[in-house]
Automatic annotation (TrEMBL), chain A:
Matches recorded under Gene3D superfamilies: ACP-like
Name of one Pfam family that matches: PP-binding
PROSITE patterns from the UniProt entry: CARRIER
Species this chain originates from: Micromonospora sediminimaris
Record's protein name: Carrier domain-containing protein
Domain annotation Carrier: ranges: 1-79
Domain of life: Bacteria
Signal peptide: none
Classification via InterPro entries: ACP-like_sf, PP-bd_ACP
From TrEMBL, chain B:
Swiss-Prot/TrEMBL cofactor(s): FAD
Name of protein: Acyl-CoA dehydrogenase
Superkingdom per UniProt: Bacteria
Family: Belongs to the acyl-CoA dehydrogenase family.
Organism of this sequence: Micromonospora sediminimaris
Single GO term (MF): acyl-CoA dehydrogenase activity
Alphabetically ordered keywords of this record: FAD, Flavoprotein, Oxidoreductase
Keyword Flavoprotein: yes
Length: 82, 381
């Protein structure tokens, strides 16, 4: 697993946080009820530290963090801007 | 800024500088602050001149780019001398942090330099008369119209509210609980002092009544929606970190006072220091003080690394440090006997201030629920 595969990294983080929940890569983690305000901030901090960017305010929306795929796409978008 | 402030030379903020400042400018006056129920303007100016209001802000905004570990150590040293001033640093830091992390470029340019200097003082406004800090039951509301937002509601127990220039107000919108910047001069905002609280009496608490307070569209901190809960969570995390560090300051002050008193006080011809029950109390104070310091410093290092584990580390640090402070402040009064119950005595103030630490920025009951939930989430295999 490397940062070349952000979806795997994000999936591993979610698995560590929620070891009893199976999460498909396209599954809505908000709809699963996993995201409260505490975990939302943890998730943002994890993404920023792991992938080395600060989430810009226009990406601070649910759609950017809705699923493993969505987060991976966010990482790809930010990587493209570097 | 008063002329006195100019005489305080600004040096890079760290634990040693904060200790020097606290012991020179705060400790000798802390009882007076407590009895007066306020901090005089010249002291607040001195805090600003020493660069203590928000040293974590970047240099470009007038801060010092201090690490969060350093911020914790500074708050410990200030808390050792005066929990009321430390409480003002806490809420001011919470507002500054929110703008640094979630503010727009315009909000940061407008407010952060003044917050760094202390020419604008910030206050955090979450609690309400019927909800406390239970965000689910907040009733203050913000309604959007074509000119911005209109706020209604009441906030209470607002630390620094009597003196603050800028309030970070949490109110309900259609998308959740959002944070708004409300200048003190806003029409429809009434600030009422709350005197005579049990502890941190100098922290100038107030009640805010908002009756159709109008703010512009740029008053919202962060985009409305996903960010709302994060602003509150992040700001409270900063507050809990500061309270944890301040509680260690109280612990160290209890230890210092008790060691000094028992070294000289004799009962029945025997120095208290030679009594094993006294030794047991002091040894527990030493141990808990060191453990609490390790916990908040660990949380601070995680913040500096941007590690999400800092959130839970801070919960644990605040819970441990504040309960230890309340427990050992009670023991400090016990060790001092009637002397420690005397109005104006150091340990009497520490006892009252320590109790407050168990309640603010999330009561310890809420903290235990959160810590346990995390244990079930991550640690049960």
């Amino acid at each position: 697993m490397s940062h070349n595969d952000p979806s795997a990294v994000v999936a591993a983080f979610l698995q560590q946080r929620f070891p009893h929940v199976e999460i498909a890569h396209d599954e809505d983690i908000f709809a699963l009820g996993l995201v409260n305000s505490l975990f939302a901030l943890e998730l943002v901090m994890f993404v920023e530290k792991t992938f080395g960017f600060t989430v810009p305010s226009d990406e601070m929306r649910i759609d950017s963090f809705r699923s493993i795929d969505a987060i991976s796409a966010l990482v790809d978008r930010q990587s493209a801007t570097v | 800024m008063s002329p006195m402030a100019a005489s305080t030379e600004r040096v890079p903020t760290d634990r040693a500088a904060a200790r020097c400042f606290a012991r020179t400018h705060l400790a000798p006056l802390a009882t007076r602050f407590d009895q007066a129920g306020s901090i005089p303007s010249e002291t607040l100016d001195r805090v600003g001149a020493a660069g203590l209001w928000a040293p974590f802000l970047p240099v470009g905004y007038g801060g010092q780019g201090a690490s969060m570990l350093t911020v914790g150590q500074v708050h410990e040293e200030i808390g050792h001398a005066c929990s009321s001033v430390r409480s003002l640093l806490t809420v001011h830091g919470m507002v500054s942090w929110a703008l640094l992390r979630f503010g727009t470029p315009g909000q940061r340019e407008q407010w952060l330099p003044r917050l760094a200097a202390g020419s604008v003082l910030g206050a955090f406004c979450l609690s309400e008369p019927d909800a406390g800090s239970d965000a689910v039951n907040l009733t203050s509301r913000a309604v959007r119209d074509e000119r911005g937002w209109v706020l209604h509601g009441t906030k209470t127990w607002i630390t620094g509210g009597q003196r603050a220039h800028l309030f970070l107000v949490f109110a309900r919108t259609g998308a959740g609980i959002a944070a708004f910047l409300v200048p003190r001069a806003s029409e429809g905002l009434t600030v009422t002092p709350i005197p005579g609280m049990l502890g941190t009496r100098g922290s100038m608490l107030a009640r805010l009544t908002m009756t159709g307070v109008r703010v512009g569209p740029d008053a919202l901190v962060g985009p409305d929606g996903f960010v709302n809960g994060m602003v509150m969570t992040g700001v409270l995390d900063f507050g809990r970190y500061s309270v944890a560090a301040g509680s260690v300051g109280i612990l160290q002050a209890c230890l210092d006072a008790c060691a000094q008193y028992t070294a000289h006080r004799k009962v029945g011809g025997t120095a208290l220091r030679d009594r094993q029950l006294i030794q047991a109390k002091l040894s527990d104070m030493v141990t808990d003080t060191r453990a609490a310091r390790l916990l908040y410093e660990a949380a601070g290092r995680l913040k500096d690394q941007g590690d999400a584990d800092t959130l839970m580390a801070t919960w644990v640090a605040k819970y441990f440090a504040s309960t230890a402070a309340a427990r050992h402040a009670a023991e400090a009064v016990q060790i001092h006997g009637a002397v420690g119950c005397t109005p104006g005595h150091l340990v009497e103030r520490l006892y009252r201030d320590a109790k407050v630490m168990e309640i603010i920025e999330g009561s310890n009951e809420i903290q235990r629920i959160t810590i346990a939930a995390d244990a079930y989430r991550k640690d049960v295999r």
